[in-house]
Specification:
Rossmann fold; 17 helices; 447 residues; Beta Polymerase, domain 2
Length: 447
């Protein structure tokens, strides 16, 4: 089995595409089941956040696995695969490991170093474990990715140097409001993880009074109480909008919550001297209807706009130090992975040797019935010892060689020399070296 990552993120796909690809929590198990139902996919983890939708998979063949995953993603997006392919990127084998580790370390985030992605990866892994879609390979990959993310944070402080997406968005909002959010009335729409982060960050920045609204009123009340904020029913959304300067929208709704009609009514009751109403749309699918951005007196900052403004990333983050950690960890994981790949061949070789020894000892017992039980036992121990010593160095060495580039050739040679029957990936699915360093969107067809 080989690792394959297929995904779309803010780097290569507009929000409209991410919206179509986004998988709600209620649908995660269904999509994982669809992936496992494909002929080339044996394990799958699905990550769906406001910035990315990615499938991490163990596949029996590159081209077959890629086609299977793209078909499921196209089905989810209700789009033809050819149209979706322009926004997808593909990482295979070593490049797949490197990508997942970079994501965990915060290097691939819109705001370099943000720590929220680590929790999102953990949630995706736990969900896949619960759906029984993560096997040995992805269990090891995800556990190591989480460890790499923690190591990067602990050793470089990248999570302290970086910002959360919410913090970065609020910095952009402050620029629209004379550079300071202190004392600015604010509303948070949504009481999930992103909403909670929004309330916490607004509180820390001195914004207030703070109000929380959510479709589940009890959840909004609990979140508001934790920060001394107020909670209102979603039915009062229009009234609250007319009294605030900042809105953080981060719900899991499948349709816009802040529609043009709702915002227009709020603007009609709003004091025109207050300055702009700044709407931070951190949801995918979007919470703010597209037409709202055209209303006078409204500033909409969504994922697309943030990606453009924050493209350079903060210079203070020691990206090089994190990249060195990722490179070291990728090398270690690939060494384990290659050893894991050669293990069935080594086991088959030892099994073949054991079968030969057993057959020869049986023949000896038939020919030399005069041998005592003690003599037979001594002969058996001697033969086994000789075989184990003969096999020890080759099997140790082949594990070492397997960790090097092209190491799978040594295992293949063992299988050929000893006629070992070990299930292998079809040669048709061999992938050129360029795939290991690919960072460009997949454009369809075979690489």
């Amino acid at each position: 089995m080989k690792l394959l990552v297929v995904g779309a993120s803010y780097r290569a796909a507009p929000v409209a595409t991410l919206e179509r690809l986004a998988v709600a929590p209620a649908d995660l198990t269904r999509i994982l089941d669809r992936l496992l139902a494909q002929p080339y996919v044996s394990e799958a983890v699905l990550v769906s956040t406001c910035n990315r939708v990615e499938v991490y998979a163990a596949v029996s063949g590159f081209h077959g696995g890629l086609g299977d995953i793209c078909a499921v993603l196209a089905e989810q997006a209700d789009a033809p695969p050819a149209g979706l392919a322009n926004h997808l990127y593909v990482h295979y084998d070593t490049a797949a490991v490197e990508h997942v580790f970079k994501v965990a370390a915060g290097l691939d985030s819109m705001v370099v170093g943000e720590a929220q992605i680590l929790g999102q990866l953990r949630d995706a892994y736990h969900w896949a474990s619960g759906a029984d879609s993560a096997g040995q390979l992805l269990h090891e990959l995800m556990q190591q990715a989480l460890r790499v993310g923690k190591r990067a944070h602990a050793e470089t402080g990248i999570d302290r140097a970086g910002q959360s997406v919410v913090t970065a968005a609020l910095s952009l909002a402050a620029a629209q409001l004379d550079g300071d959010l202190a004392g600015r009335p604010a509303l948070v729409v949504g009481a999930g993880a992103m909403g909670a982060l929004g309330v916490a960050t607004l509180s820390r920045l001195g914004a207030g009074p703070l109000t929380v609204t959510n479709r589940g009123a009890d959840r909004a009340a609990r979140l508001a109480e934790s920060y001394g904020a107020g909670a209102v029913p979603m039915a009062e959304l229009t009234d609250v909008l007319s009294t605030v300067d900042i809105v953080v929208a981060a719900t899991a709704a499948t349709e816009p919550v802040l529609t043009r009609e709702v915002v227009t009514r709020a603007l009609a009751d709003r004091d025109p001297g207050r300055g702009p109403l700044v709407l931070l749309d951190l949801a995918v699918p979007r919470d703010v209807e597209t037409g709202v951005a055209g209303l006078p007196g409204v500033e909409v900052i969504d994922i697309d706009r943030m990606a453009t403004i924050l493209a350079g990333g903060p210079a203070a983050v020691d990206v090089a130090a994190v990249e060195r950690i990722v490179a070291d960890e990728v090398e270690s994981f690939i060494t384990w992975l290659r050893g894991n790949d050669v293990a069935p061949t080594v086991a088959a070789l030892r099994g073949r040797a054991e079968a030969v020894v057993t057959a020869e000892l049986r023949r000896l017992a038939q020919r030399r019935s005069d041998l005592s039980d003690e003599q037979r036992a001594e002969v058996a121990r001697t033969v086994h010892r000789v075989v184990q010593r003969l096999l020890h160095q080759p099997t140790v060495r082949v594990r070492q060689l397997a960790a090097e580039p092209g190491g799978d050739q040594y295992a293949a040679l063992l299988r050929e020399l000893f006629d070992l029957q070990v299930p292998q990936t079809s040669p048709v699915d061999t992938v050129p070296d360029v795939v290991d360093t690919d960072t460009t969107p997949y454009t369809g067809g075979e690489r």
